[in-house]
Amino acid sequence: MPITYDAVKALSANLYDWSLRAVPADTKDGLRRALETESQDGARKVLRMMLGSAQKAEEEDRFVCSDAGVPVYHVTIGSAARLDGDIKAAISDGFDDLVGRISPPLLKHVTNPLTNERGYKGRDMPLVTWDVAGGADWVEILCQPKALGSGRWAALETFSFPTLAEIEAYVMKVVMQAGSQHCPPVIIGVGIGGSFDVAARIASKATMRRVGSVNDEPVLAAMEERLLRAVNATGFGPMGTGGDTTALAVHVDYASGHGYTPVAVCFNCWINRRTRARLHADGSVERFE
User: Fold this and answer.
1) What is the spatial distance between Cα 121 and Cα 110, in angstroms, rounded to a whole number?
2) For residues 78 and 130, is the Cβ–Cβ distance under 8 A?
3) How far is residue 230's CA from residue 218's CA, in Å, rounded to a whole number?
4) pTM of the model
5) pLDDT digits (tens, 9 = 90+) for 210-243
6) Contact 52, 15 (CB under 8 A)
7) Could you tell me which of 175, 182, 97 has the C-alpha nearest to residue 148?
8) Sign of CA dihedral 216, 127, 116, 198
9) Half-sphere exposure (CA, 13 Å, Cβ side) for 181?
């Protein structure tokens, strides 16, 4: 059976809706672990408030945050999948459909960078990146809305043959520039190598990794551990109130490249919004945390 335009349209709209109303389970677990180790009373109070807000949003079917951001999708198409219809248009049409029916309504966050006009439509909106999975007969869609906290403080710099210490120093430079303006505790994604666009994509994908997971690459696992300790030693704390919990996780990945090495750093705010599901060839939908 082919994967249809209607199926992609419905799922992409639902993923965006779902992402606004729940904090992922791994992120809530990370907040609970932080609450157990946090030494500052004020920070513990904020962490408890975050967990309470997450629970309340789920119980009352409300948005966790009023800033719904803009629709960002990562789509992976199985090379054996049969497609029926324009799935790129389906994602755009799904967002249009959601705008018309969602409650509470979305604010007009889609912005023309040339005029600063705001609305619900715009060039290349929704923002979609594409990938291919060899041999698979499904289409996987991951929705990760981007708002000010998770988008404003991303940065990239290109180095020539940097050492690991130089890379880590740059990550900390970006962390210090962001301060607490990205709504911590955050998830930090770091992409190393490839080309300019590849490094940024790697960093973005790194934020999608499960909080609490350990990197398969020992060198990167050690780097993540060092960076997480260093970030939390800054003392910014939850929502900038001070404390030991500025980040829940630092996730690093890399690609081979030339002698020039771009390093990209990006953040997800404490809500860590992301939803993911697969459309299978038999028409079934499989959701993932």
Assistant:
1) 6
2) no
3) 18
4) 0.94
5) 999 999 999 999 999 999 999 999 999 999 999 9
6) no
7) 182
8) positive
9) 12
